[in-house]
Design brief:
With 200 residues, the chain is an alpha+beta fold. Helix content is 42%, strand content 25%. The chain has nine helices and nine strands. The strands form two sheets. It has a seven-stranded mixed β-sheet. The chain has a two-stranded antiparallel ribbon with strand order 8-9. A hairpin with a 2-residue loop joins strand 6 and strand 7. The chain is globular. The N and C termini lie far apart (74 Å).
């Protein structure tokens, strides 16, 4: 009887460790791929150099702000026609959403911290109840993988000089030279395209 109980305990511990390490073994790409709410984002990086890069082992982890399917569905048609349909522009837009280094909400507080995206654009992060990327609320934060963390956001990010953002006051523009928001208006799309094309 005691032997049976010991066997069950050992078996339970074995199952726990197998399950635990399986979870930890998932890379950031696998974690995105297995989330049905992020399937559109995954479709844009599937079988590209971005997918291959994010699967490699580096001395650092990644932080990815992943727009969910609703975010892509809500985009103006021009974004699909002019940006997402173009391989180079699509890659640049996705790189706006990736940071080198792991930033979870427990690393942040109400003080605004500035980080640099892989596309070399500064963004502001802070935590006040929810995790924010400037104007955007992270709807599902801190999904961990063995090489990074994923924060699901409810829109596709547009990073711009704050002087171009008509919604901000002069003091806000002075305080935040760069702002990030949801890519929604014709002006925002044209500014992003102008900036992206200047890099070619």
């Amino acid at each position: 009887m005691k032997g049976d109980k010991l066997y069950l305990k050992i078996f339970s511990l074995f199952c726990f460790f197998i399950f635990h390490f399986d979870l930890k073994a998932k890379g950031i790409i696998t974690t995105i791929r297995e989330n049905p709410d992020l399937s559109i984002f995954y479709s844009y990086i599937n079988n590209t150099e971005l997918e291959a890069t994010l699967q490699q082992k580096f001395p650092w982890n990644w932080t990815i702000f992943v727009p969910n399917n609703k975010a892509f569905d809500a985009l103006p048609k021009k974004v699909h026609d002019k940006i997402l349909s173009d391989t180079s522009l699509r890659k640049m837009l996705i790189l706006d959403h990736i940071l080198i280094g792991q930033k979870s909400s427990i690393d942040l507080n109400s003080e605004i911290t500035q980080e640099i995206t892989v596309s070399n654009k500064p963004i502001q992060l802070y935590k006040r109840g929810s995790l924010f990327v400037k104007d955007m609320v992270v709807v599902n934060e801190n999904t961990s993988s063995d090489n990074g963390v994923i924060h699901e956001i409810n829109c596709v990010m547009f990073v711009q000089p704050s002087q171009e953002d008509d919604r901000l006051t002069k003091s806000q523009k002075d305080k935040f030279p760069i702002t990030s928001c949801c890519m929604q208006t014709e002006k925002e799309i044209n500014l992003w395209l102008k900036s992206a094309n200047s890099k070619f």
